[in-house]
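<derive_structure_tokens>
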Amino acid sequence: MTTKQHNPIYQQLLTNGMAQWVPALMMMLRNYDGIERALEPAEQPLRYLAEKLDPLYNSPMSDRERLFFDAVASMPLLYYRVAGDGKYWNPGNETFHQFEGRMGTISIWQEWTPLLSRSEVKHWLYANLPVSRDAWSTA
């Protein structure tokens, strides 16, 4: 995923007053980079999020963050699993490319439930939310 691909999502989140979430979202998606070959076009993360985040503009500011977390947690990407050599990939611990490189031959399949719950996605995003140095100076 290139910066050019990130631009529409960044613009949507910027327009909706939520640009602070772009770095954490891109870090999360970076761990999945490469798995998109198993996804249908409508399931591609940035395309999916662009569609889901479009209605944020008409939502009250107090609801936007909740809707953002709901959209990220419902990405079809999170319904896919990867395994190789009897081991399962954990996207929180390594990137898809790292796992694939270690395992060689892998299997990718889709499950009925997401790998991460909404609260786990929210926690992951918060844990990777960059803190501005300015925030520390005013704390």
Q: What stands out?
A: The CA atoms of residues 46 and 138 lie 34 Å apart. Confidence is low (pLDDT under 50) at residues 1-5, 133-139. The first strand starts at residue 80 and ends at 84. The two ends are 35 Å apart (CA to CA).
